[in-house]
Amino acid sequence: MTGAKRKKKSVFWSKMHTPRCEDIKQWCRRRLPILEWAPNYSLKENLLPDTVSGIMLAVQQVTQGLAFAILSSVHPVFGLYGSLFPAIIYAIFGMGRHVATGTFALTSLISANAVERLVPLSSQNLTTQTNTSVLGLSDFEMQKIGVAAAVSFLGGVIQVAMFMLQLGSATFLLTEPVISAMTTGAATHVVTSQVKFLLGIKMPYISGPLGFFYIYAYVFENIKSVRLEALLLSLLSIVVLVLVKELNEQFKRKIKVVLPVDLVLIIAASFACYCTNMENTYGLEVVGHIPKGIPPPRAPPMNILSAVITEAFGVALVGYVASLALAQGSAKKFKYSVDDNQEFLAHGLSNVISSFLFCIPSAAAMGRTAGLYSTGAKTQVACLISCIFVLIVIYAIGPLLYWLPMCVLASIIVVGLKGMLIQFRDLKKYWNVDKIDWGIWVSTYIFTICFAANVGLLFGVIGTIAIVIGRFPRAKTLSMKDMKEMDVRVKTEEDGETLQQVKIISINNPLVFLNAKKFHIDLMKIIQKENTCNQPLDDIIKCEQNTLLNSLSNGNCNEEASQPCLNEKCSLILDCSGLTFFDYSGVSMLVEVYMDCKIRGIDISLVHCTASLMKAMNYCGNLDSEKPIFFESVSDAISNIHANKSLNKLSDHSEV
Questions:
Q1: Sign of the C-alpha dihedral, residues 646, 651, 652, 656?
Q2: pTM greater than 0.85
Q3: Nearest Cα to Cα of residue 113 among 315, 266, 385
Q4: Measuring CA to CA, which of 44, 204, 360, 638 is 20 to 30 A from 529?
């Protein structure tokens, strides 16, 4: 009896422990994405492109690290640390395979407000003569990095808190026009902050509401102070960078490795400055001394957290939004998924842990991510390889950057922001698709310029929601049609009678950013279903979808009638008579549905479309010009499907 009881107990405990172990393993894979892709990493296929991409990325990380550290009002060496540690942490916790995390212009600009406010320049006279044991830097420099690290720490804590609250599911509120306008406005701010280096003039730190305009007012008032040498060197650097990068883009298919023009320019400018002694002869400002090595970790000053809470929220929101947009873009481009909530955790830990290592706030940057695209990176191994080269710069090459002119570094930053600045071209797209989205873009950009990136982001989200709420009461509802009016049958004869299956889905409500993503998910689920059909094979399968938009369901599709099944011969008809209005996100999702169906070999037709919807879809996507997809009625669409099948059958017989 005792042995039997022990056996039962062991079986009981094994049953209790086994699922718990599996749950832990699943949780680890979900929260540590590196455990998913690292074991399956192919050295033969991926190592070479990742190595090339990592080398090119390291050049960008070093140059942007130096520049964004200065933009954040701290010593340049801390930008190198910010290019190293956040990239390693994101590679472990992040899901974006082509996202390059490190120093970021927008977060640096936000943290600079806290640094300049809490450590004013007037306090430098009291601390310059006193050096600390940390890299031989002055107390003044250490106070400034302490404030920047505190902003990074608190911003990361806010992001981790948002992860724990599962706020990643609320990212559907961040529409493409709002993100585009905010990042473009913030890039304009960064360019403005570099004007003093491009022109070689001394300028006090200017921030706050309308600070953008005050900076240019100061420049025009002191236009006689512009150093001609700095201006000419800046113009020459910008021209060289733009021309070489355009040539690299045009001939990237013919050449395997693009010319690292940033690196070449840094070496050439530093050498020329050293040989001609530009710092003393012409008064050009240079980067200055870069100390070697990495200091031991130190906690950021916790006593100033309450003083930097505004900047911390700005870093948390703006950094996450810009990074998530890049992660989602890469996931869409390379066909993998990204968990919005996991990205909160990845970027939160990148900021929290790095703040103990003298790092400024971090996020993903568009220029570095685009560089990974163009150089053919496959995984986050490219970012890890770039960290090796950044480490070499920190311990060996850093002191050689002393003679790098600040005007050249500013030119590299301005050209690197090209991807954000050319988003002005989106205005034409939004005007043709939905003029309300155009208005949201313009107003968000203006608020970002006049105030700050976080203010512009908040205004854009609130304005978008308010406009949608205002448009809904005027939306017409769709009355359910008589099923008999839609009852048609389509048969094809090929080795007997088989069903030419047609699915008719009606969209009964507006399609906007609030329900566009859920609409796509539910529609794809219906298309993927392969359940056994209970209806006769010669009946049309009709599935009425009611995309009721509300805050809880976010546009759930509730399927009525019997469960349909899909076979190889399937056509989809979307009845858009109930689509009373739409925005850019809704039209983009319809185009994405069309492209997904095209890839799956499913014929898709849209009926009862308004002229504005057809114009918007033709403008947003590359629709098939050979096959018509817009029809006036469901019967016209079904007749077209039947005619195409008859034509295909006749073509097959002709080939035989």
A1: positive
A2: no
A3: 315
A4: 638
Q: Which candidate, 477, 551, 559, places its Cα nearest to that of 523? A: 559
d(CA 596, CA 165): 33
Return d(Cα 248, Cα 245) in angstroms, integer. 5
- The span from the CA of 443 to the CA of 178, in Å, is 9
Query: Which domains does the chain carry?
Result: 47-120+138-210+217-287+316-417+427-471 (no CATH), 475-487+499-529+569-651 (3.30.750.24)
Give the pair of three-digit tokens for residue 609. Answer: 């479309």
Task: Identify any residues that bridge with 504 across adjacent strands, giving them in sequence order.
Answer: 542, 573
Residue 306 near residue 114, CB atoms below 8 Å: no
Non-local (6+) Cβ contacts of 85 within 8 A are 350, 353, 354, 357, 359
pLDDT at 154: 96
Instruction: Give the strand pairing for 545-547 and 557-559.
Output: antiparallel
CA 88 to chain centroid, in Å, comes to 19
C-alpha–C-alpha distance, residues 193 and 281, integer Å: 25
What 3-state DSSP class applies to 643?
helix
Predicted pLDDT at 525: 78
- Cα 143 from Cα 122, distance rounded (Å): 13
Where are any strands of DSSP class E within 82-235?
101-103
The runs of H, that is alpha helices, within 335-425 are 340-355, 366-374, 381-392, 406-416, 418-421
461 and 178 Cβ atoms separated by less than 8 Å: yes
Buried-exposed string 52-82: b where 16+ CB fall within 10 A, e elsewhere? bbbbbbbbbbbbbbbbbbbbbbbbbbbbbbb
How is residue 145 written in tokens?
A: 């990095």
Assign 263 to helix, strand or coil: helix
Query: How many angstroms separate the CA atoms of 1 and 411, rounded?
Result: 84
Smallest Cα–Cα separation from 149: which of 121, 125, 119, 129?
Answer: 119
Give the sign of the dihedral formed by CA 192, CA 194, CA 199, CA 200. positive
446: CB partners within 8 A, 6+ apart: 185
> Would you say the C-alpha torsion 311, 445, 67, 381 has a positive or negative sign?
positive
Tokens of 279: 């710092």
- Show Cβ contacts of residue 474 under 8 Å, excluding neighbours closer than 6 positions: none
434: left (phi over 0), alpha (psi -120 to 50) or beta: beta
Closest CA to 95 of 320, 388, 324, 316: 324
Angle ∠(235,374,407) on CA atoms, nearest 5: 20
The number of residues making up the chain comes to 656
Say what the pLDDT of residue 550 is: 33
Collect all residues with Cβ–Cβ distance below 8 Å to 323 and sequence separation of at least 6: 96, 99, 101, 343, 347, 363, 364
Place of tokens 């990239």: 87
- Please say whether the beta carbons of 359 and 82 come within 8 A: yes
